[in-house]
Amino acid sequence: MPPVYRLAEVGVYSLLNFLPLMVLALYPFRHRLRFSKAVTAVLVLVLSVVQIFLGWQAAFSSSNAGLLSAVSTLLYAAFYFLAVKVNMGKTVFTLLLLSNNASFIVMSSKCLEGQLFPALAHQSYRWSFSLCMFLIEAFIWTPLFFYMKKVYTPAVEKEPSGIEWRYLWLIPATFYLIWYYTLYGNSSKTSLELALEPKNTAALFFINAGAFLVYYIVAKLLIEQQKNLRLHEKNHLLAMQSLQYGYLQDKIAEARRSKHDARHHLALMQELLKKGEYSKLSEYLGSYQNALPDVSDRIYCKNTSVSALLAYFAQQAENSGIEYVVNADIPEDIKADITDLSVLFGNLIENALHGCIDDKSEHKKIEINAKADSYSLCIAVDNTFTGTPVTDADGSFISTKHGGKGIGIDSVKSIAEKYDGIAKFEYDGRMFYASVMLNI
Known about the structure:
The chain is an alpha+beta fold. It folds into 2 domains: 4-234, no CATH class; 298-439, Heat Shock Protein 90 (2-Layer Sandwich), CATH 3.30.565. The protein is built from 14 helices and 5 strands. It has helices spanning 4-26, 37-60, 65-83, 88-116, 118-121, 127-157, 165-168, 170-185, 191-195, 198-275, 278-291, 304-319, 338-358, 407-418, and strands at 323-329, 365-372, 376-384, 422-427, 431-439. The chain has a 5-stranded mixed β-sheet. It is elongated, with a radius of gyration of 33 Å. The chain starts with a helix and ends with a strand. Mean pLDDT is 81; it is low at 402-406.
């Protein structure tokens, strides 16, 4: 049985090597945890105890040190993938980013220990090592936390599409291979001997500094991409509002014309009434009633903004010879941002309209089904399309209105993600199906 002070030394090292890393890894996804924060905290504490136990086994059972270190790493990674509900690429990127810095902290701590406590530096897990690690972490992890909070978290909370993170994790993986090869690729020295040489710590510092510059640029580019998407959505919303305004202006002009024409109709009906020509009056009233527009056909739901948008596209579909069917039940007081609804409906219906216009079939149809309750909003927009939709290597549909991926589809996916919902786009060779569910 090792002395208590040795158990304490190994335990403190295990916590310093694990807990700060775990806190930083969970912070960017604190709103996307699979469990409640309280349950997650309890699980982290349990895993901390396990890490201490594994550290004891590795420190006092040298034959299994390598295996126990691998088990410790696997447990850490498995818990992280289980605890966080985000794109796999984001979690891998985050783990590699922080693991690279954790390796640098361990190596620089051993180097500092060699300078301050040369007699203890050749021993494993001594209090001097933990002290040096604490000092290095205080110096590095504080700015690292601000980077994670101010730059990295905004970049990973949302993104225009999910495909970026399928490849971005290769960046920290590449830097890991670079510093690993730089230190161990052409050297026969042990890891302890390499760590005690200041030149290796200096080299690793510059590699990590360059890596962080790249991480910073990548995060900023993603944030800028999000801003461009938001700007596109706002421009699209303004376009939708302009279209609605034009539609309302047409209706106002139509109402004025009807009011003006009504005077002539009333004058004629009064003349027929004076002459007692009741049969002609009845016939004229019937024809006049049939000539009046059916306003009820243009009111699609109780939400006036969505109804006006649906009515505008109904006119567009009618002008293009497209059958337009709407079943909508959306209340006026729906718990969703009207800006998001306008962008969502506008993009979905506009895409369907362009799909039908490009379609070569004789019968063209757009069918819209939308229903909202206190908890969710479900939208399905289906349109006929007998062409061949273009997709990229990831299966994402590419716009036929312009080069590149359809920005409208990305906007829809972004809004769905904002409300923790889903957006699906499918094609069966005859119909194009777009469906969205928002948690409101």
